Amino acid sequence: MSESPLRRAPAHALSFATTLAGVSLTITLAACGGGGDEAGGGPTPAASQQCAATGTCPGSGPTQNHPVAALCPATLDYNTTYTGGSGAGELVKMQFDSTQGTYRIQILESAVPKATNDIYPTRAGVTLTGTMAHPARPLPTPAQNQCAYELKTVTASDGASQALIDPANPPIVFVGNGVAGGGIPGATIEYAGIFGIGAIPKTTFPMYPVLAFAETETDFSKVAGTYNVLGYHLVPSGGSVTPAGHFVPATAQTVETLNADGTCTPASGNCVTTGQPWQLRAGTDGAFDSNNANGSQPYPHFYATAFLQDNSSRAKGVLVVGKLDGARVPLLVRVGYARIDLGQGILSVDDESGLALLAPAAAATQAAMQGSYIGSGSDFKYLSSIVHDNLVALIDPQDTSLKPVGGFQMDFTQATRPGVVATTDNSGITGTLITTGPVYAHLFGPASAPTFRVSALASR
N or C: lower Cβ tally within 10 Å for the chain? Predict the structure, then answer.
């Protein structure tokens, strides 16, 4: 941390502590199918799964609602700016006015095409404005609902860029003390290609997952360190002229050292976080940039067969390092680039885009993970997660019944490397989790269809 103090955020950085609504350990065990003999646990994993199936689980004692400090600022205004990234490969700045019921999202970098039937230019440089209100489908408690904002309308500053709000599935932003996450307006991607080559079928994204911070680190020497990297990108082009598929997922699980001069040293192979050395972006962006403006070293990619990923690529990386609850949270944005203009002799397609989280390559502890979180992911779902011991119950934050919709168990032995926590759900689906302070990232499922979710702390 720099010497300037953080805005003092209690350890509930977001507003959806479902435990405060009375979720008991019994529910958590039923969702996760385990508990063992750990402190606060219940039946053994086998017994827990059996009682969950038969509805005969013993109670864990009366639930209690404990008073907590405010989950989010009492009012929001445009004096606070949240800087972060979207899953579409965008650098964004978000502002909210709770009194007027309005919002403003500046899109500083973007891989999202401005028009539905094209790939270039993108909506970079466009500001989205509109109205917002607390969710039409309320969250379980008034305190939680007070910190959630459903985006109702949207207007692009250039009068042309697409920004989708689906009333049936509107973007929702969950605002806490120092952090904002959830979803921002989506878009429809479609491209006819050149004589059919490179065509992308019409695909609509109802929203794009987003995470942003009220305070960011701008001194890279304080960011330097060895990190676990966990990330998820999409490749609209499929990575080749005649792809086997489109919007192909590409993931990364690796460890790298970021040096004080902005360079990267991989533990093995090549760095996926850094091409050109990281440099502080001009102006007051509060983020770092790694680009290929001089055409000497393209920004790296996750996808093994990237199309035209050479020195002509203008894809870039943006690193936003949030300061949250006494920790630094590095969020990495890959901004893909695609432009085809045969008249000007331009053929540049490196459209892989997405997010990754970096977490210190140090042992994660079970105690540090305890609490309730809120997040969104590549499956376009908003989920609250309740962490108790090594169990995680997943809940729809807008379902007042608080009935779990899933869950998983965490293995803190970290056999692969320090800080990398293996996960398994009741269906046997495995995954990987890393955590940095009050934020965790979870990647799970098969390589052909993985799911990636980033969640921020709501309550201890």
Answer: N
